[in-house]
Write a sequence for this structure.
């Protein structure tokens, strides 16, 4: 039951942040065009930097002797995602096939697992 509440708390934080953002935009506290500027900064600079710093601070060969398998899993997952994207994009309409394929391949589901892992295993996870 502890795991359930940890996951609920982690997802609740993400939902709360999203609702706060909608509230700020709806009340016109911040113009909507600011999001076009902030989103790339967060996704392309802040998040990769946070991951890099976490790896540099917490990585030791003694803790992670099988570290070399992670890039292999990433390559395998990428090829599987490409294959599934090609197969399932064939069912979409030709007018929207490119957008459909991009949304399948570059899905945005990483944020929930990141919050859940951090909630379950602490800030050093």
């Amino acid at each position: 039951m502890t795991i359930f509440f940890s996951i609920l708390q982690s997802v609740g934080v993400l939902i709360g942040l999203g609702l706060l953002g909608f509230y700020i935009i709806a009340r016109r506290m911040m113009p909507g065009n600011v999001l076009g500027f902030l989103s790339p900064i967060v996704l392309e600079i802040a998040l990769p930097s946070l991951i890099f710093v976490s790896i540099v601070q917490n990585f030791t060969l003694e803790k992670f002797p099988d570290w070399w398998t992670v890039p292999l899993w990433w390559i395998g997952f990428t090829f599987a995602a490409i294959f599934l994207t090609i197969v399932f994009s064939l069912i979409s309409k030709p007018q929207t096939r490119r957008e459909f394929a991009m949304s399948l391949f570059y899905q945005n589901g990483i944020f929930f697992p990141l919050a859940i892992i951090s909630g379950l295993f602490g800030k050093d996870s």
